[in-house]
Write a structure and sequence with these properties.
The structure holds 2 protein chains of 2 kinds. Chain A is mainly α. In chain A, 35% of the residues lie in helices and 0% in strands. Classes of the chains: A mainly alpha, B mainly alpha.
């Protein structure tokens, strides 16, 4: 006999579903969410929960596919061309149209080698 | 079919379908979570059950957890582990001072907003009174 409902096959399948749904999240956020859902299931289900009881709890939780997860978005193209300047920097624009990391320069109107403090052309 | 009919159909389908209500619920769930935490700290399942008992707020209980994390990221909620006697450790969520201020602001805005929407929906305001003079 298992010591916790987390070992129930339906719960295990659900936890695998979570892993798949959270794959696009930053690892720390995914780990935390899974820990929260696991704790929820552990609290909600007795160790000897039957299939119907487990299925009902999982149904109420819902599919993680439909949760409003803030997914890790790929950085926009201009963002991948940033110069190495930090806060308050006077870094040089690495590529025409690029933004400086300090955000003082917003791409358009600047050429490679411009200082981020130069006015846009 | 004329375009305007298709647009109108889309709007009406959105209004009558579950989609619009789901968006509405999502929008108010954060303040509702804060309001419950204002009374006392709660652990995850406790909070979810209290929200579910309120009726009609949750379509999917799991959505509460990503929301809690966003509220915490925004500084409106904190969490801490508590190991109460005879029970296993649980993560308890509490409202912060910033959360209380945010909730107070939302309550005032919600009161105004609900009066306005109620007025329009029930034809109780100037904007929807038949025969009202057009601006101009």
């Amino acid at each position: 006999m298992s010591g916790t409902a987390l070992e129930h096959p339906l719960v295990r399948d659900y936890l695998h579903e979570l892993d798949a749904a959270f794959a696009a999240l930053p690892p720390e956020r995914a780990r935390e969410l899974k820990e929260q859902i696991t704790a929820h299931l552990d609290d909600a289900l007795p160790a000897d929960a039957g299939d119907q009881e487990v299925a009902a709890v999982l149904r109420r939780l819902g599919s993680p596919v439909n949760w409003p997860l803030k997914r890790r978005r790929r950085r926009p193209r201009w963002c991948r061309r940033l110069t190495a300047g930090g806060p308050g920097c006077a870094g040089r624009v690495a590529q025409r149209g690029a933004d400086c990391r300090c955000r003082r320069v917003r791409g358009l109107g600047h050429r490679r080698g411009d200082s981020c403090t130069d006015p846009a052309r | 079919m004329p375009l305007i009919s298709l647009v109108w159909q889309d709007i009406m389908l959105g209004m009558t379908g579950e989609g619009a209500l789901t968006e509405l619920r999502r929008g108010v769930l954060g303040p509702c979570v804060l309001a419950l935490l204002e009374l006392r700290p709660r652990f995850g399942l406790e909070l979810v059950r209290d929200l579910a008992d309120a009726g009609g707020l949750l379509t999917s209980e799991g959505t509460v957890y990503p929301l809690l994390n966003r509220l915490r990221d925004a500084g409106l909620v904190t969490s801490e582990w508590r190991d109460e006697t005879g029970q296993r450790a649980r993560r308890y969520y509490s409202i912060t001072d910033a959360g209380r201020r945010s909730l107070t602001t939302f309550r005032a805005e919600w009161a105004r907003f609900s009066v306005t929407v109620g007025g329009v929906l029930n034809h109780r305001c100037d904007a929807v009174t038949p025969g009202r003079k057009e601006r101009g």
